[in-house]
Amino acid sequence: VQLQASGGGLVQAGGSLRLSCSASGRIVSNTHMAWFRQAPGKEREFVAVLKWGSRHTDYADSVKGRFTISRDHAENTVYLQMNSLRPEDTAVYYCASDPSLIRSSRWFPTAYDYWGQGTQVTVSS
Q1: DSSP letter string over 57-106?
Q2: What are the pLDDT digits (tens) for 39-59?
């Protein structure tokens, strides 16, 4: 599986962006697809995850109510709609996937075998 992330950019606080992550190859129903982010000098942190078949989602507390993860089955693409952006959301955002991770590990980057290249999101105050 190859992942291609896009959609980052510069936005003012309170604005919105939508990130996309296109996947090559077949995505099985048990696949978890997630977004992580990494700010300079900080560890990579979980943002949101979606299970492909059930569309069950989970979010980091810091983005609940502001970010929405979704998928387009026909396009093999997962999205991250980000609203009410804050300067602290500034980071490189990565999409990740894994077809067989244990559900309890879905918040941890080490659980994912496949990664996109990252897209920069910068929120100005």
Answers
A1: EEE-TTTTTTEEEEEETTTTEEEEEE-S--GGG-EEEEEEEESS--GGGT
A2: 999 999 999 999 999 889 999
Are 9 and 17 contacting, i.e. CB atoms less than 8 angstroms apart?
yes
Rounded to 5°, the CA angle 104-60-29 comes to 50
pLDDT higher for 101 or 47? Answer: 47
User: Which tokens belong to 121?
Assistant: 């999101």
Question: Which three-class secondary structure state does DSSP give residue 109?
Answer: helix
CB 95 within 8 A of CB 3: yes
104 confidence band (pLDDT: 50, 70, 90)? confident
- Residue pair 31/55 in contact (Cβ under 8 Å)? The answer is no
Q: What are phi and psi of 87, to 5 degrees?
A: -55, -30
